[in-house]
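Re: magnesium ion structure - here you go.
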Amino acid sequence: MKGVNNVVAVSSGKGGVGKSLIASTLAVILARKGYKVGLFDLDFTSPSTHVILGAEGLQPKEEKGIIPPEVHGIKYMSIVYYSGEHAVPLRGADISNALIELFAITRWNTLDFLIIDMPPGISDATLDIIRFVKKVKFLVVTTPSQLAFETVRKLLDLLSELGINVVGVVENMKMKESQFIKQQVEGRGITFWGETPFDIMVEEAIGNVKKLLTTEFGSILEELVAKNLK
Amino acid sequence: MHEWALAEAVISTVSQITEKEQLKEVLEVKIKVGELQQIELDILEFALSQLKTPKLKNVKFNIQTAKAELKCRYCGHKWIFRKEKMNEEIAEAIHFVPEIAHAYVKCPKCGSPDFEILEGRGIWLESIKGAK
Ligand SMILES: Nc1ncnc2c1ncn2[C@@H]1O[C@H](COP(=O)(O)OP(=O)(O)O)[C@@H](O)[C@H]1O
Ligand SMILES: [Mg+2]
Ligand SMILES: [Zn+2]
């Protein structure tokens, strides 16, 4: 990890809020700007970034470790290289062990950004990332729903208690005007990145990165990145 | 190869212990290698010899294998993992990430994938002999 400048964990207290979609799209956006980007899918039991990226038939190279293959200009690592179509039922300790193993053997070389797609919640993977990747920063995803923010609030409080850098909060699947999330986030002294809309075109663009970038969701996320990530 | 990463980890752990115990020289390092991960002993040994630090100049690496013992959390059955039963692709996946076994290995008694690895997952240091 020595050559990796920025590690950004895309995280949330809740599942289904768009972490994987945002992590994947963010990685593509940064790669297109000319940065050296890696994407690491750490949601071992429910990996999904490979579907969003339309990454098929990839295999990492072995060379004193594992060199992630490239897709859309991104160095991409996922457990699906090893589990294929199979379910991988893992308990907490197994998740930790697999995570440590993959971190130890993956050779990213030099990267401007390593984007990590996290599983939901504040369980094993989150605690392990905090433990092992001292320079990790979090990009936290929520939806406008109070239910989502109830868990996101706890994640934000935990991170701030631990002194972990939160680069910002994205409010995804925005459907109507409201200030609730923005106020809650800014009230905590955390940067509110902005809102990405609920966009029915996203589903059709899954697996097609070019199309994804041209959706309203994609172009707005690109604006948020330009504005907030420097 | 993956064995190199493991060898690096062994050397770095040995160095830490050497420092902590203030050893002048390390004479023997006993390493146990679990069968689940199917580590290639030749490559591991070669990697270790190449990564030797000055204090490890005269070290003897004593590498032993350990059976991988699995225990079903659902029915309690214990069994020994046998790589001969695996096809090559699966064996290789388990080689890189032993937890992948949960995708392919089932309890022979009840069919559950919910088992724990009692022993023989990866690689561990058994003992170190040195001179002060
Ligand atoms: N802004 C959006 N507009 C439309 N659909 C979205 C949007 N964000 C996420 N989705 C969809 O919602 C579902 C959950 O997203 P996903 O990224 O898998 O969430 P998570 O990783 O947080 O569980 C997916 O089907 C995804 O395509
Ligand atoms: Mg996800
Ligand atoms: Zn059983």
